Amino acid sequence: MSAPRRRAGLVGLAGLVGLVGLVGLGGCQQAYYRTMEVFGKEKRDLLIDEVEDTRDSQDAAREEFADALEAFSALTDFEGGDLEALYEQLSERFERSRDRAEDVRDHIREVDRVAQDLFAEWEAELGLYMNQDLRRRSEQQLRETRAQYDRLIAAMRQVEASMEPVLATFQDQVLFLKHNLNARAIASLEDDLPALETNVRQLIARMEASIEEAERFIDRLQGG
């Protein structure tokens, strides 16, 4: 076999492997759903669990960001001392905030994945109804649940977007301190604190709004 034909064959094989991999991932997800159904967990129950986890993750992140802001705001009160210790403290606060933010992002992805699977299944099963009145009622419930979910995921996306500028400022300040451990560096960082405080307060407000939206959505799914 010539080299070009061998390369073409390898490309085709790679594409096939990639396709099988994607199908496999979808198959794994369906297998997971079937397994959970055996234990009495439908997609609705799984979505409630995911939304609760995301709510709790945001609550933990809210506390972490508030603590980090307090630590960074303490720069204004710095009157000399161990700059290395100050740097280590702020670096740790940044890393913990970054980890919490990543946890929130992961949970939001899981919420959206399960929600889309639930809605797809719900819509497909509308065609199985024999009683048209029940079908219309179920379709109306689907529309209302989707609309409320859209509000929830929009609130969560706002939290995601609001975390980025805060983390960027935390990182910039930590990096600047790392390479400029002196009193002049502390003084120059103080100029960024008003904007940082505004961004963190906005982030916390959006987290609180998202948590409230999550509570309302959970209440709806539980039939409250």
Domain count, please report it.
2
Question: What's the β-strand tally?
Answer: 0
What composes the largest sheet? none
**Rg from C-alpha positions?**
24 Å
The percent range for helix content is over 70%
Q: Shape, please?
A: elongated
Number of helices: 6
**Poorly predicted spans:** 2-25
Beta-strand percent range:
under 5%
Average pLDDT rating = 86
* SSE sequence, one letter per element: HHHHHH
Give the N-terminus to C-terminus distance in angstroms.
68 Å
Q: What would you call the structural class?
A: mainly alpha
Please give a structural write-up:
The protein folds into two domains: 1-41; 42-221. Helix 2 (43-73) runs antiparallel to helix 6 (193-221) and helix 3 (83-125) runs antiparallel to helix 4 (132-179). The protein has six helices and no strands. With 224 residues, it is mainly alpha-helical. It is 87% helix and 0% strand.
Question: What key phrases describe this protein's structure?
Answer:
2 domains; mainly alpha; 6 helices; 87% helix; disordered N terminus; single chain; 224 residues
